[in-house]
Design a protein that fits this description.
With 79 residues, the protein is mainly alpha-helical. It has 3 helices and no strands.
Length: 79
Protein backbone atom coordinates (compact mmCIF):
# COMPACT_ATOMS: atom_id res chain seq x y z
CA UNK A 1 0.00 0.00 0.00
CA UNK A 2 2.89 2.36 0.77
CA UNK A 3 4.26 1.71 -2.70
CA UNK A 4 1.02 2.80 -4.36
CA UNK A 5 0.91 5.96 -2.28
CA UNK A 6 4.53 6.66 -3.22
CA UNK A 7 3.76 6.17 -6.91
CA UNK A 8 0.71 8.44 -6.71
CA UNK A 9 2.69 11.12 -4.90
CA UNK A 10 5.51 10.80 -7.43
CA UNK A 11 3.09 11.24 -10.32
CA UNK A 12 1.49 14.24 -8.66
CA UNK A 13 4.87 15.81 -7.93
CA UNK A 14 6.05 15.25 -11.53
CA UNK A 15 2.85 16.83 -12.82
CA UNK A 16 3.22 19.87 -10.53
CA UNK A 17 6.88 20.31 -11.51
CA UNK A 18 6.01 20.02 -15.19
CA UNK A 19 3.29 22.66 -14.91
CA UNK A 20 5.62 24.92 -12.91
CA UNK A 21 8.29 24.60 -15.60
CA UNK A 22 5.74 25.38 -18.29
CA UNK A 23 4.57 28.38 -16.25
CA UNK A 24 8.11 29.74 -15.93
CA UNK A 25 8.98 29.25 -19.62
CA UNK A 26 5.61 30.28 -21.05
CA UNK A 27 5.01 33.23 -23.32
CA UNK A 28 3.60 36.11 -21.27
CA UNK A 29 0.11 36.00 -22.84
CA UNK A 30 -0.61 32.34 -21.87
CA UNK A 31 -2.79 31.56 -18.84
CA UNK A 32 -2.22 28.78 -16.29
CA UNK A 33 -5.39 26.95 -17.38
CA UNK A 34 -4.03 26.60 -20.89
CA UNK A 35 -0.80 25.11 -19.53
CA UNK A 36 -2.66 22.58 -17.40
CA UNK A 37 -4.55 21.37 -20.48
CA UNK A 38 -1.20 20.65 -22.21
CA UNK A 39 -0.10 18.03 -19.65
CA UNK A 40 -2.39 15.19 -20.83
CA UNK A 41 -1.34 15.86 -24.43
CA UNK A 42 2.34 15.56 -23.48
CA UNK A 43 1.67 12.30 -21.63
CA UNK A 44 -0.14 10.91 -24.69
CA UNK A 45 2.79 12.02 -26.86
CA UNK A 46 5.28 10.15 -24.68
CA UNK A 47 3.06 7.05 -24.67
CA UNK A 48 2.73 7.16 -28.46
CA UNK A 49 6.49 7.64 -28.89
CA UNK A 50 7.17 4.62 -26.71
CA UNK A 51 4.70 2.51 -28.70
CA UNK A 52 5.75 3.68 -32.18
CA UNK A 53 7.90 1.22 -34.15
CA UNK A 54 9.58 4.09 -36.01
CA UNK A 55 11.19 5.56 -32.89
CA UNK A 56 14.80 4.43 -32.35
CA UNK A 57 15.51 2.21 -29.37
CA UNK A 58 17.89 4.79 -27.90
CA UNK A 59 15.10 7.40 -27.78
CA UNK A 60 12.74 4.90 -26.15
CA UNK A 61 15.33 4.04 -23.53
CA UNK A 62 15.93 7.72 -22.77
CA UNK A 63 12.19 8.32 -22.42
CA UNK A 64 11.84 5.35 -20.08
CA UNK A 65 14.83 6.53 -18.04
CA UNK A 66 13.34 10.02 -17.80
CA UNK A 67 9.97 8.68 -16.67
CA UNK A 68 11.58 6.36 -14.12
CA UNK A 69 13.72 9.21 -12.80
CA UNK A 70 10.74 11.56 -12.48
CA UNK A 71 8.58 8.94 -10.77
CA UNK A 72 11.28 7.47 -8.55
CA UNK A 73 10.86 8.15 -4.84
CA UNK A 74 14.63 7.65 -4.45
CA UNK A 75 16.64 10.84 -4.79
CA UNK A 76 19.61 10.09 -7.06
CA UNK A 77 21.41 13.27 -6.03
CA UNK A 78 20.81 13.87 -2.32
CA UNK A 79 20.59 17.45 -1.16
Amino acid sequence: MDTLIGIALGLAAAWVLFVALLWILRPRDVRLGELVRVVPDVLRLVRDLLASPGVPVSVRLLLLFLLAWLLSPVDLIPE
